[in-house]
Write a structure and sequence with these properties.
The chain has 312 residues and is an alpha+beta fold. The radius of gyration is 23 Å and the shape is globular.
């Protein structure tokens, strides 16, 4: 409890706190208004009939999404997941659906490429053995691909992603396509370029099983309009460059895997066994509080010497 010497002091503190709250509220309202205005601007690119259809699809998807996540019966969850894919595919075929946010679908992660070339939807369905089946779609920006397709019709409007994580052999050193995707829920896209080629580094999470989780740094590259995942661009000072980075650790722990926009660092937290005798037993790996980082140089994410001292 704070004791004030007099009423004037109390009034000054009260006034200061009130002004601070007012500033925060003003900032929130301005941010909300800006987001709302941007959303309305994009929706104007969709004709009224298409907009009504998209709203109907969103309602249906919301119901399927609820069953997909909440139902106790695994078969119902999986069936709902399959129906969700079908309905979502039909929705994405509607002209200019790229500009529809689908923001009521709380079980679906959606992130946009920094250059707005595409957006990625990812979601998952839990199974009874406490693993997850992942689903995803890359949807291209119609205005962007219209320009890219002037010479050759190479880009499609969207690409379903089929999770084949369990069947990918040597996944740390393999390039796969959309039909053999290393599934994850993505939360960040980092765009880099080299030699007139664009690379989209994808940061994601995977609830790997009952005892472990994963953080993943993958890379998406378009080759002749086709999305491919994985490329030898992660140099961790090992014998070979990795095609993706996968960190697996105890499911009660959390680790950092993120991109520092200001410093242009790709940062990851190191994980170690909780005791030497548990080396190699992934369920006993935990973060040790140290951080390594990579910088983009000549088409490679290159690990830097020493640990990162300040993590922002």
């Amino acid at each position: 409890m704070r004791i004030f010497a007099n009423n004037n002091q109390f009034f000054v503190v009260f006034l200061f706190n009130s002004m601070r709250l007012l500033v925060l509220l003003s900032f929130f309202l301005l941010s909300f208004q800006s987001t709302w205005a941007q959303k309305q601007k994009l929706l104007k690119k969709i004709d009224s009939l298409s907009l009504d259809s998209l709203k109907d699809y969103e309602i249906r998807l919301g119901g399927l999404g609820y069953s997909m996540v909440r139902d106790f019966d695994e078969e119902v969850r999986i069936t709902s997941g399959r129906n969700f894919i079908r309905q979502f595919g039909r929705a994405l075929r509607i002209p200019n659906s790229y500009y529809y946010p689908f923001d009521s679908l709380k079980n679906v992660m959606v992130i946009y490429a920094p250059d707005d070339l595409f957006r990625i939807f990812t979601w998952n369905v839990a199974t009874n053995d406490e693993t997850f089946r992942y689903f995803g779609v890359i949807q291209m920006n119609p205005e962007k691909i219209k320009k890219l397709n002037k010479k050759d019709e190479v880009f499609q409007s969207f690409y379903p992603l089929i999770d084949r994580s369990d069947s990918i052999i040597d996944f740390l050193f393999t390039t796969v396509d959309a039909n053999k995707w290393f599934g994850a829920s993505y939360y960040k896209i980092v765009k880099t370029s080299f030699a007139k080629k664009d690379y989209y580094t994808l940061l994601g999470w995977d609830g790997a099983g009952p005892a472990t989780n994963k953080k993943i740094a993958d890379v998406l590259v378009f080759n002749n309009g086709k999305p491919t995942f994985g490329a030898p661009i992660f140099d961790l000072n090992k014998k070979r460059r990795y095609y993706r980075m996968v960190f697996e650790f105890n499911n009660q722990a959390t680790i950092a895997l993120r991109y520092d926009e200001k410093r242009k660092y790709l940062i990851y937290e190191n994980i170690v066994p909780n005791k030497p005798s548990n080396a190699g037993l992934i369920e006993h790996y935990y973060p040790d509080g140290s951080f390594d980082y990579l910088i983009w140089k000549n088409g490679i994410w290159l690990k830097q010497p020493g640990f990162l001292e300040v993590v922002r």
